[in-house]
Design the sequence.
């Protein structure tokens, strides 16, 4: 019997043996199952572990050029440049809000001036209240608190506006509009004045925040948001010697899509469209 005939005979014998054929089929099925399961586990592990843990630092800081003004006069203009620097180790997206604080003091009306403003001087108290107004601590800018001029001279706060978010091209409580903020020309936009096609490296105002248009790489600095602050010549006398403070507040975020929910960005607004293709 030739070798070919021997192989044909062996195959016929194997097929005719149902028990042996069943065992072979079961073994083959088990091998296929184990093989596919192993492949699935390997593939799953590769997907889960394909990205290493990100331990790089996300950080940004406000940079500001400003000399504190202790006595404002109507018509005064002071440089106040505000920008943001990425001082971290990873790309970042930033936004800025501006908070206004104001406190004024009682005026002396004892001379019965026809306009009711008195002589324009502040009313003086010889005895201080239990809490004093601290120029550097806005938490003390409370109606009824006294501001110490010297040991025997105190002014009493009669009107305060605290932590008011600046509304770009919006309504501000009096007398805040008298403090005029000059933003960088052609770098700040909003719904009423959208950026031109192809614009880059600008700020867009939406919902109380100025959003920077670009993803900032480490060490990158934005253009100035603000250039200066001035006190209008129309500033009224009743707010003489009042205190005013403008405080920039900045948020920084990585470039993941969680930014949309973390910052509460509307999916129908301009900011969403500005960032949509820059997030992952």
Sequence:
């Amino acid at each position: 019997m030739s070798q070919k005939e021997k192989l044909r005979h062996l195959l016929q014998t194997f097929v005719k043996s149902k028990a042996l054929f069943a065992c072979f089929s079961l073994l083959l099925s088990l091998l296929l199952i184990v093989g596919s399961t192993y492949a699935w586990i390997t593939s799953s592990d590769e997907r889960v572990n394909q990205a290493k843990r990100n331990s790089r630092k996300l950080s940004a800081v406000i940079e500001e050029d400003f000399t504190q003004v202790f006595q404002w006069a109507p018509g005064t203009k002071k440089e106040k440049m505000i920008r943001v620097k990425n001082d971290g180790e990873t790309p970042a997206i930033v936004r800025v809000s501006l908070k206004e604080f104001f406190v004024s003091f009682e005026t002396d009306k004892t001379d019965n001036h026809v306009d009711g403003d008195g002589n324009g001087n502040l009313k003086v108290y010889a005895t201080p209240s239990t809490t004093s107004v601290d120029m550097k601590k806005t938490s003390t800018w409370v109606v009824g608190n006294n501001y110490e001029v010297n040991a025997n001279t105190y002014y009493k706060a009669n009107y305060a506006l605290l932590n008011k978010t600046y509304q770009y091209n919006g309504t501000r409580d009096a007398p805040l509009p008298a403090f005029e903020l000059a933003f960088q020309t052609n770098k700040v936009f909003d719904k009423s004045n959208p950026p031109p096609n192809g614009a880059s490296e600008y700020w867009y105002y939406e919902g109380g925040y100025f959003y920077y248009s670009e993803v900032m790489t480490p060490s990158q600095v934005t253009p100035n948001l603000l250039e200066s602050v001035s006190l209008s010549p129309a500033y009224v006398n009743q707010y003489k010697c009042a205190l005013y403070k403008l405080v920039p507040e900045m948020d920084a975020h990585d470039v993941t899509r969680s930014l949309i929910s973390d910052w509460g960005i509307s999916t129908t607004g301009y900011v969403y469209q500005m960032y949509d293709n820059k997030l992952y």
Residues 3-48 form one domain. Residues 20-54 have pLDDT under 50 and may be disordered. The chain is about 20% helix and 30% strand.
